[in-house]
Design goal:
There is one protein chain. This protein has helices spanning 78-94, 127-140, 194-197, 201-211, 228-239, 273-281, 296-307, 324-330, 335-341, 366-375, 377-380, 417-424, 429-438, 444-453, 459-465, and strands at 22-24, 35-36, 42-45, 49-51, 97-104, 108-115, 118-126, 152-160, 163-174, 177-185, 216-221, 246-250, 260-264, 287-290, 311-316, 342-354, 360-364, 387-391, 403-414. It has 470 residues and is an alpha/beta fold. The protein folds into 2 domains: 22-185, Beta-Lactamase, CATH 3.30.450.90; 194-465, P-loop containing nucleotide triphosphate hydrolases (Rossmann fold), CATH 3.40.50. It has a 7-stranded mixed β-sheet with strand order 4-8-9-10-5-6-7. It has a 7-stranded mixed β-sheet with strand order 13-12-14-15-11-16-19, with helices on both faces. A 3-stranded antiparallel β-sheet has the order 1-3-2, with no helix packed on it. A hairpin with a 3-residue loop joins strand 5 and strand 6 (108-115). Helix 1 packs across helix 2 and helix 9 (335-341) runs antiparallel to helix 12. Bound molecules: zinc ion (ZN).
Length: 470
């Protein structure tokens, strides 16, 4: 829990009294106040937001379903705007949100928080307050305030008591005004075990076999926000020991692990995934984590590292485990290199967990079942007409949503000998799928249905986060 309210004051020059904080900023449009630090990284001195006793300016909407417009919001001074912004951030952090969306509409601006992967409306402010708030966001992140059309990116640090919360701001112009998104980077102290994330049984065994090997690649696959980084970090935590040199290169660094060296990608300073990885390898690490592989250069260095005695963890933006293999080929990597270096591909999705307090036992049958079978033959093949499932209800514990927290759904492609052979022989996705199935590949949807039957996840949630395989 964050300690709020030690009431640190900000001095007249804008710097916090006592302890100035230097925040490295990587804006698209360079901030005017930038100066060069010793390592050549552009840094901007600015004051972080200090959250004192921010009084609630806007009441929150408990179920988040209706939007609330405050007609007589008394926001007149910059200080009030700052308090309002702090209030939003504090509330979003309390609700464990990953980001805050400031969305301009014709007559107002709606403030939405992404909680458990779902955007929910929480507040609305009038157009005048909107202008002041966007201005404040730009000032706080060192962006150009006179630019209203070009997209801009920046960084803001908020301080809650003594806990800093780093955030990334991006602003784009829409037909209704400037839309801002604040991504909250909450460095979680808690490391999850793979079991807690939802990996179990044979799938867990397959992942374990991949990281006890001294070399090779472990790839997490999935779209943005599917929990890839969390999975990789859980594995890093397991294999983290003093005798091993572990280095990560990320964009941005999401969590920090003790004893691990984290490097932040900074293209403006010439630090890309590819050349960061190259210089990292000169320091003889045992284990490397590369935030994402998305180009030939990074892929090639990572594969070389994996071939020369390093364990490499990384992620790829693909929908399932099988398509990760041809993705490497599309990036110009030879099939035999993929076959000889990749240990495992863990494809995943995050599903909202049913609230234990209010979930309701029910059966899926009759018309409802037929409807499901029409669109999701894959799920219907795994659930019989009349099977028992649980559905979301909503109570005070889960703020009326019916869900509390999230759980991963997994598809673990282990590169066993037959799978490796098929890759070397140039098998296409269909053929690879066939071979992997024989080797016991469990699909995302199958792991999902298993969790539905266990009462952890609802059927509608599985339909939302997985897609019918074509
Ligand atoms: Zn509930």
């Amino acid at each position: 829990m964050l300690g709020i309210g030690d009431g640190k004051k900000v001095g007249s020059n804008g710097d916090p009294v006592g302890k100035p904080i230097v925040i490295p900023v990587v804006p698209v449009v360079p901030a005017k106040t930038g100066d060069k630090s010793v390592d050549g990284e552009k840094t901007v001195k600015q004051s972080p937001f200090v959250v004192g006793e921010a009084k609630p300016v806007v009441p929150s909407i408990p179920n988040g379903e209706k939007k609330l417009v405050i007609p007589e919001l008394k926001v007149r001074h910059e200080k009030d705007i700052e308090a309002l912004l702090q209030e939003f951030v504090k509330e979003a952090v309390d609700k464990k949100s990953s980001d805050i969306h400031f969305e301009p509409r014709q007559d107002d601006m709606v403030i939405r928080y992404r909680v458990d992967g779902i955007l929910r409306d929480f507040h609305a402010i009038d157009k005048e307050t909107e202008k002041a708030l966007v201005f404040k966001l730009k000032i706080a992140s060192g962006l150009r305030t006179d630019e209203h059309f070009a997209p801009q990116d920046g960084r803001i640090e908020f301080i809650f008591g003594k806990t800093p919360i780093d955030s990334r701001l991006s602003i784009i112009s829409t037909t209704n005004g400037e839309k801002a998104v604040l991504r909250l980077l909450i460095k979680q102290g808690k490391a999850y075990t793979l079991e807690e994330l939802g990996l179990e049984g044979d799938l867990l065994e397959r992942v374990k076999r991949s990281y006890v090997k001294p070399q090779g690649m472990i790839i997490a696959a999935g779209p943005t926000g599917s929990g890839k980084t969390t999975t990789l970090y859980s594995i890093l935590n397991i294999i983290n020991s003093r005798e091993k040199n572990i280095t990560t290169i990320e964009d941005p660094v999401e969590y920090e692990i003790e004893g691990v060296n984290h490097i932040h990608v900074n293209p403006k300073a010439g630090l890309t995934f590819a050349n960061g990885l190259r210089s990292m390898l000169r320091q003889d690490p045992d284990i490397i984590m590369v935030g994402e592989i998305r180009d030939n250069e990074t892929a090639r260095i990572a594969i070389n590292a994996a071939m020369t005695g390093h364990l490499v963890l990384s992620s790829i933006h693909t929908n399932d485990s099988i398509t990760t293999i041809p993705r490497f080929m599309n990036m110009g990597i030879e099939p035999y290199l993929v076959a000889s270096t990749v240990n495992v591909v863990v494809a995943q999705r995050l599903a909202r967990r049913l609230c234990e307090k209010c979930k309701k036992k029910t059966t899926v049958e009759g018309e409802q079942y037929q409807e499901m079978a029409k669109y999701r033959s894959d799920i219907a093949a795994l659930i019989k007409n009349g099977d028992t499932v649980y559905q979301e209800v909503g109570c005070e514990v889960c703020e009326g949503t019916g869900y509390k927290g999230r759980i991963g759904l997994y598809e673990v492609l282990e590169l066993t000998k037959p799978v490796r052979n098929a890759i070397v022989e140039g098998a296409d996705s269909d053929k690879l799928f066939e071979v992997a199935r024989k080797e016991g590949l469990v699909l995302l949807v199958e792991d999902g249905v298993k969790k539905v039957k266990a009462g952890t996840v609802s059927l509608s949630e599985i339909m939302r986060v997985t897609a019918l395989k074509e």
